[in-house]
Amino acid sequence: MSKLSNRLMKTSPIVISLVSFVLAILVSCVIMLLCGYDPIFAYSVIIEGSLGSVRSLTNTLIQATPLIFTGLAFMVGKKATLINLGVEGQMYTGAMVAALVGMTPLPLPGILHLFLALVCGVIGGGLAGALIGFLKVRFGSNEVITTTMTNFIIINFCDYLVNYPLKAEGAVAQTNKIVDGALLGKMIPGYQLTWAIVIAVLAALIVKFVLEKTRFGYEVRAVGLNMKAAETAGIKVGGVMMKAMLFSGALAGLCGAVHVTSVGKRFISGFSPGYGFSGISVAALASDSPLGIILAGIIFGALKTGAMYLNMMSQIPTEFVSVIQALVVIFVSAPLLIRALIGADRKPKKGGRSHAE
Amino acid sequence: MLNNITGILSTMFSMSIPLILAALGGVYSVRSGIMALGLESMILTGAFTAAVGSFYSGSAWIGLLCGILGGMIFGLCHGLLCIRYKVNQVISGIGLNLLATAASTLLMQIIWGNKGNSEAVASVNTKLTFLKDIPVLGDIFSRQSVLLIFTILVCIASWFILFKTPFGLRLRMVGENPKAASSMGIPVRRMKYIGVLVCGALAGLAGAYLSIDSLNMFVRDMSASRGYIAIAIAILSRYNPLNVLLCGSLFALCDAVQIYVQGYGIPSQLVQMIPYIVTLLVLAFGVKNIQPPAGVGKYEDE
Amino acid sequence: MNSVEMIDIVKQYPLVRAVDHVSFSLGQGEIHSLLGENGAGKSTLMKILYGMTVPDEGEIRVNGEPVKIKSPKDAIRLGIGMVHQHFMLSPVMSVTENIIVNHEPRKGWLIDEKKAEQEIQALIDRFHFNINAKAKVQELSVGEQQRVEILKAIYRGANILILDEPTAVLTPQEVEELFVIMRNLKKDNKSIIIITHKLKETLAIADRISVLRDGKMVESGLPLGNVTTSDLAKMMVGRDVELNVRRENTNMGEEFFRIQDLQLSERGVQVLKGISLSIRKGEILGVAGIEGNGQTELIEVLTGLRKADSGTMTMGTEAIRGDAHAFLKHKIGHIPEDRLSRGLVAEMSIEDNLILGYHDEPQFLKQGLLQKKNIQSYAEEAVGEYMIKTPNARELVSSLSGGNQQKVVIARVFKQNPDVLIVAQPTRGVDVGAMEYIHHQLLRLRDEGKAILLISADLDEVRSLSDRIAVIYDGRIVSVQQAEDTDELSLGLLMTGGKEEHHEQAV
Q1: Per the UniProt record, which residue ranges are transmembrane (chain A) (predicted)?
Q2: Residue A205: inside a domain, yes or no?
């Protein structure tokens, strides 16, 4: 096994990510051709719509913000061997808690109110994550299934809240608006872009620092790479896993909190088009590097923004972006497949032929 | 009162079909040593391709076949990724689940121009009507699809296949200890492919039941995490097909109760949580000492 | 006519040539011992014969016929059977199921279970294997499991048997039983290859020997005449070897590490039944025993990985309790029995591995932050001091050889200057060079006054290093004796639950 992984290491993760991404884009081109569109035209529209002007650039960054958070959240869990599919639900929790705090009039200056809302969102998401960690550590429950179940439970519960006790006046299932002072400010006057993106980048830097420089980060790495050895070395594996899930959930919660205090301005039923699951793709494309996640988040954000622009001009559904994201997850996880596709492991015909004489 | 009970039981049996079929698929996959986390994608794809097949052919039976094939294609993908390309089985399953969701939604828009559900398609309309004159039992079973009989039979047959036939012994050996199996001359990879393909076929059929038997259209994300619940069922059944029959029915009962309670004015969002909460509780308290086959995630050549 | 002839076989792996133009022949009805160190190529050669790997060059003949063996299936068809060192069995299945799989007697579509059981029981009775065909494999002892492996081959009609390190996991008594079985099989005109690095056993059972070193055949088909163990050792290693590192102990101090009446139950079964031992400063206490008699659990309790149900541990006068972390802080070092599963994080750097478990020492950690510079210089120092062969300390541990990986474990523990050492299987799977080195290091630490508990399945290792030897059987210490008072046979007897003797009552 170690020999195999050694050989895989030789193709650097960046190459694997790059090739995976290009392959996924190529597949999307085929889809466009099948729908009767010229992919070159489509992609020029996408680039135009996502990077072509200051407005489209800011839209890209708005789209990228939640993806960076959820990418980070998924990655942190994965480092401790936990596949946190519950980012979506944890994000809902954070969003709901932050919206509740944000919409309640408090005798606080706006900035403190905002801060409190964000912190409460972080705590909410973190606890939702820690619950999964607890079930895993205490009962050995498979986190893939428990997170999927809790997603349904949390999302349904939030839906219930905004349809019944917390429903604002009107037809839409949503809460009341968050107090003006507790909203994140705009970065550039006249554009929708808020300071949310800065918070996302800061979060990535913090995650990088924590994983590389702190005791917790070291222990997460040890647990993630060899749980038994970590245990033997006196590292409390269960504790590390719980903390990792708390951290992961907190990042997801922050994502939700930032969303409701910037783009959403309130909790709206079904506000997420699956940000939590997109995070899996973001982390995959970034090959689990925190700074890479910023970049990957922006790339997918741009694709999404461009795709929406494209959708206005053609009949191409924006869902092809989700297909690209899914393919990236699959390709990145299959270095052997990538190597086979790019012909990197074509063997020399036979081992010791030169020695035959 | 009796009406309520027969109603719930009737719903339970019809809800149990996809859960049992998918969980049984999971049993084959896990017994061959491949984790079944891609079940969700196989169900969803089965549901989608069944609707597509039925839509274009006008025949529900062809649709059913397409559903099975669709599930098998995803089963094969999972197999190729895990067996041939040594992808982490969890990640492979999740990647395929994401792909199935994205691709079905995308194709739905391309084919039917609608994001939420497909057009109405031909549905399997063969019910067990010949039972309708039997008191009580007739109320419960006469509205069930013939697939219910098939489901029960296939579970019993699977028990014989896994525990009484040479094929089953070999498949289990592959799942328990692939190296040992290989050293005995068993073609380990082929057996694993058979495991995931059977899994895909059964899960695909489960999906087809959802779209063109219990309904007559494909609805976005209509698998609704049944794939994950099916995994929980497979674990709780200790990977034994006969237990799957029982556990699957128990989980279906939650679904039935949920649907029944909705009629009493309790917000649907709350009652819809029931099956998921039950699954969560079962995973937390019910399955602690159940070990999967020792060779899950291992290969013969490591 | 020879049963097997392998002619000019070559097998090249990406980094090494595992088998280099090797020829080998096995006579009809003979027991042929294939000797060599770990990594000498003997396993690869036999994997080729059994079709588990394909040679790059060379020819194989079975009973005079040239054959191509591409898979174990081919080998089985040719009447070749292999008994692997790591048993290829499923513990949750029955003896019968394990044996018949892929060769099942049928009744229609189903397995003919009755016929299968009868056939297997008949074979068991014929060769006096003394096991129950219906038993689950997990209920059998190691020796019995090995017999199941041999049965698997015989059931498939094997006339040529390859036994890969068959005695590694057996007690001396079980080895004797195995030899009886082997001689029975030989009488049945079966040809047997035994892969081993144990010299005494080779002399006891083999008709002829072949010796491999670094992928080359250095001695082929030598009949056993006046060959001695030291001749064989020299052939294997290529130089004279110090087989007995044992050195007089001059520096024994006071009683220091004491464990008293440790008891532990697991799922209702008592696995440690009141274990008491004490170790002096400057002493190595060896614990001999067959695997599965409580050693693993004892190690886990002694390193804080598991909490005993009752009993005490003391260092000097101080009682020790808590988890693994607390035990490390008490300066109890631990060399785990399986370095890759418990000892190292293979995909982390040597640097990171050298501080594993000690990463919260103030030297490496201040205010929750890792001190990169200190860690680096510490690691470079360790690499030099312990002669770990690597370009630098930032390489991944997985890039090292087995022996060098073990040196990382040893360096990590020894450099932290523990007072007590729990050492399990320190030389398993390392080459002779690394083994000598590790033995010397252990003796050095002993002479520096450490209290060392050595748990090893290798009786030779226990006997050559220990000052005293305790025997563990069925969760109990059944004997503690001065090493020089022991002999292999009486130890073996104790290890299998023979009569207790010289039981020192620990006070």
Answers
A1: 12-40, 60-77, 89-108, 114-135, 193-211, 244-263, 275-300, 320-342
A2: yes
